[in-house]
Amino acid sequence: TDVFNKFKAGDGSFNKDITNEPRALLCLYNAAYLSIHGESELDEAISFARHHLESTSGNLEYPLSEQVKRNLEIPYARTLKRIDAPYYIAEYGQEQTCNPSVLELAKLNFNLLQCVHQRELKDFCRWGNDLYEEVELSYSRNRIVECYFWSYTVHYEQQYGHARIILAKVFVLTSMLDDTFDMHATLEEAEKLTEAIQRWALISLWQFCPIMSYLRDGLN
């Protein structure tokens, strides 16, 4: 946290001069959210920066005004970078320092990767629908798209497509198990299922109920 001392005055409080630089203030605010528990100086930085950003946000010009508004709602360190990408692409296009070639490459990259994700989601939905038809679990929620989105937030890069799909399938199978525990299994069945999972006895899982044969194949 010593790096933040440059923003402080002699009495240890944050220097009010930084409030005249809203972009620097926003950087301080976002950087402070990388703190860990117990770093009181960064908590102080968040409070200081947030107070002054809120008081000046109405006087800022676009695109900085939108960045401040969005980060006050969700700090940059806690955002899903791929979801925020369209905002930053649009805002970068309005910056005085915008490089047209960089902007065009950013748009192409986003659109090409979006096509990859759309194709993956189409195939994944087909797999998921086949799974739900196979196991016939009327009590289980269809969370195919949601599970893919969870995986997408972990690995969005094109080269991680295989890992993305595997993780999404694990989420689907876990969701089915969760629904089996919460909405279908009796207490005795839930105890047996828990015991089998803890022992990782896939044969016992298969004997427990029909869904487990499909889950067994998915887990293997």
From TrEMBL:
Record domain Terpene synthase N-terminal: where: 2-72
Residue ranges constituting the Terpene synthase metal-binding domain according to the UniProt record: 130-202
Name of this protein: Terpene synthase metal-binding domain-containing protein
Pfam families reported for this sequence: Terpene_synth, Terpene_synth_C
Domain of life according to the entry: Eukaryota
GO MF annotations in UniProt: magnesium ion binding; terpene synthase activity
GO biological process: terpenoid biosynthetic process
Region forming the signal peptide: none
UniProt cross-references to InterPro entries, sorted A to Z: Isoprenoid_synthase_dom_sf, Terpene_synth_N, Terpene_synth_N_sf, Terpene_synthase-like, Terpene_synthase_metal-bd, Terpenoid_cyclase/PrenylTrfase
Keywords per UniProt: Metal-binding
